[in-house]
Design brief:
Blueprint: H1 18-28, H2 34-44, H3 57-63, E1 81-87, E2 99-105, E3 111-116, H4 122-135, E4 142-145, H5 154-163, E5 166-169
Parallel strand pairs: 1-4, 4-5
Antiparallel strand pairs: 1-2, 2-3
Helix pairs in contact: 1-2
Length: 176
């Protein structure tokens, strides 16, 4: 016979009263309403508990709400508002492309994707997209992108200024 000590200690949760038992199941069941938890414990497990008014921090944050962001800038024609974003780097197994840039028209929801070998190729893809939109007869009025250096460089700024296109940048860490 040999004494074995486990590498991972066994954890045991213990409720000392009915009130803490209700709180324990409330937290385990992803902060369900306590009346619902009491009903389930009573009907399914035959455990009778009393409801207390203890609120957990997670419940408060979960029930909090934010004001609406409002309506987006509605466009009346294709090309008025274009969103741009770069994704990557990825492993270079797909023809040695590590990045891609996507341009999305707000009015038509049309997306145009360019695959890039280097992040510095974004400027040329951007200029190619603007030429493509112009050839289709659309007038690009505004471009919105993140504050990445690929969109905020001298070459792009000068080209947009010459074409009369407004360039806006989103605020950092605001995905909405």
């Amino acid at each position: 016979m040999e004494v074995l000590i486990p590498n991972n200690p066994i954890e045991v949760n213990l409720a000392t009263s009915d009130d803490s038992l209700l709180q324990l199941y409330h937290e385990r069941w992803r902060h369900q309403d306590k009346r619902h938890v009491k009903s389930l414990l009573n009907h399914e497990l035959n455990i009778h508990v009393n409801i207390q008014d203890e609120l957990s921090e997670a419940c408060i944050y979960g029930k909090a709400h934010r004001l609406s962001l409002g309506s987006r800038n509605n466009c009346s024609s294709p090309g008025e508002l274009i969103f741009a974003d770069v994704c990557g780097p990825f492993d270079n197994t797909f023809r040695r492309f590590q990045y891609f840039v996507v341009f999305k028209d707000q009015f038509t929801k049309f997306r145009c994707v360019f695959f890039l070998k280097q992040k510095s190729d974004v400027a040329s893809a951007f200029l190619e997209f603007l030429a493509y939109a112009t050839n289709l007869g659309h007038i690009v009025k505004e471009v919105i992108s993140d504050n990445g250096g690929e969109f905020d460089n001298k070459e792009v700024r000068m080209f947009l200024k010459k074409k009369g296109v407004v360039q806006r940048f989103t605020a950092p860490y605001t995905p909405e």
